[in-house]
Structures are given as structure tokens and as C-alpha cells.
Amino acid sequence: MEKIGERLKQRRQELGYSLEDIHEKTKLSIVHLRAIEEGDIAYFRHDMSYLKFFLQYYAQSLHLDFSEIEDQYNQAVALYDETVAIQKQEQLEKSNQYIHERISENKKTYGTSQKTALKLRKTDPRSVIILILIVLIGVLLIYGAIRFLPQILQPTNNGNDIVVPTPIDTSPAETLPETVIVETTVVETEVIEPNTEVKLVDRTNFDVFTHQVETVSIKFVFGQDTWIRAEIDGVMTNNPASTVYQGGESIEIIIDPLVQEVVSVRVGNLIKTQIYVNDLLVEVDPSIKDFNSGITLNFTVRPNESSE
Q1: Could you tell me which residues come within 8 angstroms of residue 307 by beta carbon, excluding any fewer than 6 positions away?
Q2: Cα(277)–Cα(199) distance, integer angstroms
Q3: Is the pLDDT at 50 greater than 80, yes or no?
Q4: Rounded CA separation 4/12 (Å)
Q5: Spatial CA neighbour of 222 closest among 272, 294, 280
Q6: Lower CB density within 10 Å: C or N end of the chain?
Q7: Residue 165's pLDDT is what?
Q8: pTM confidence score
Q9: What SS3 class is residue 204?
Q10: CA gap 307, 148 in Å, rounded
């Protein structure tokens, strides 16, 4: 990793760029840039999955081909992973050794107390017999109460009980309600024509035709980790921010078609990425669907026009 950092630093100095200049170009923090140039791979231990994108972005800002340093990057990551694994194994062995030492000490400490506890567990047989007798007496008392107590409490019948006849229901039979037939009317709804249409001009350029819309929304749903940079009419915008996004995240650019015309989005990775214009899925050219080394897509908005 030190060789990669030294090469990037030397190239930056040859072009006369400062770290602040690279920060403005890549939007990477100066702390990240300095760590890359110093070859401090451990600084990115919590962002290891993004380190490759940081290096790609940095190399592109210096007009370098990332493939020239990709092998060195892979070797540096593999060496770092191996070092971390060895350190974890050493820590695990120390932890196990400490546990075994503590167990040995505890055996000596608790040996005497365990012998005392075993003596206390021995129960007097006479106590067991007395306990069994008490349980049996209790069961007999409960059985006698359930068997004979209801007969004692039940009142006797001397023939003076009054018998109440059961009343006969003479009310007329209940009539069922009449069935009501409800007529339904099918209302035909008017089909609204779509107010946005997208036309593929070539592999990276799209014409967006709008019809009586106030805003145009261009949305990217990323399929894999990628970095992006967006411009509106040639001016870089920070909404969305130019940074690295994870797979599954999305960005949305909203413009006024009456005052803004061209949206350019630089994407590092197009694999499995979906693009929507006003919620309309855009079909990209098949030759760039699996592009993963940086490509710029341009959307030219043409309000109040027809695509025909």
C-alpha cells in the first residue's frame, strides 16, 4: 500500500496539485487522502469495502488508469487481512490460556466447599418418612371433603316445593326481511396519457420530453456500491452529494424544466442499477448495463414538445 500511496503522491506533485485541489476534485476528505498517500491501510479498517472506490476516484483525478495499481492493491489487502487474522489468533490463544489458569485456581479454592455441600445434601431417613405421612393425611382430608361435604350441605325436599310450568311461546313466527336488489353502474375512467417520455439518442445520451409538468425527477437506484458526481447545465451540484453510495441506496435529482435543461451524472458502477424519470423506468443501452469503470449519462429535458 505504501508503493501505491507514493506513486499517487508523486503524480499529484508532478501535476502541481495540492491535497486541497484533490479534495475539491474528488470530494474525499484531506484526512482520507493523506492516509492513502502514507499507505496507512489500517486507517480504513472500518471502510475496507470502500477503499477500492477511493483509490479509483483518486487515480481518475490524476488521469491514471486504476488497472495499473490494482494488483498492488489486491496484494496489500490480502497481506493486511492475513496480519489481522494472525493477531486475532494470538489474542484467542492468550485468552484461552488465561481461562485455563483461572479454572485451575478455582478448583483449589472451591474443592473444600464442595465436600461440605455434599455432606449437607445427605438427608435423615426419618424426616422423609414423616414428610410422606403428612402428605398422605392431607390427601385423605381433601378426598373426604370432596366426597361427603356436598351431601351434608344439600337441602332435603319435603314435598312443599312449588313447580313453575314452562311458558309456551305464542308469538307469531318471525318473518325474514325482503331481499333488496341493488343495481350497480360501471363507470368508465378516462385513461390519462403519460406526461413524460424518454428517448435513447445514443448509448449515453437521453432526450426527455415532458408535457405540462412542473418538475422533472431523475432517480438512480444503485445495484452495487458506486461513487457518483452530478452536474446541472454544466455546474456541479451537491444535491445529491458526490460520494460513495452502497448497493440498494438511491439518489434523486429534481429540476425545473423551464429554466434547467441538461443533467449529467457520472457513475462509477452501473451493474444492476435502475434509472427512473418521473417514475418511468428508463431502458439503458445493453452495451453499458454492466459498466463498472466510470461513465457519464446525459439527460436533455425538452419541455412542451412531442417525441413524434
Answers
A1: 197, 199, 207, 209
A2: 11
A3: yes
A4: 12
A5: 272
A6: C
A7: 54
A8: 0.41
A9: coil
A10: 99
pLDDT tens by residue, 271-305: 999 999 999 999 999 999 898 888 999 999 986 65
State the cell numbers at 242.
458526490
- H helices within 66-124, ranges in order? 67-121
Q: Residue 180 has what pLDDT?
A: 47
Domains and CATH numbers, the chain: 1-121 (1.10.260.40), 196-303 (2.60.40)
Q: Which of 207, 184, 187, 183 is nearest to 197 (CA)?
A: 207
Predicted confidence at residue 284, as pLDDT, reads 93
Write out the three cell numbers for 203.
448509448
171 phi and psi, to 5 degrees? Answer: -70, 150
Tell me if 262 sits within 8 A of 233, measured CB to CB: yes
Q: What region, left, alpha or beta, does residue 143 occupy, with left being phi > 0 and alpha being psi -120 to 50 degrees?
A: alpha
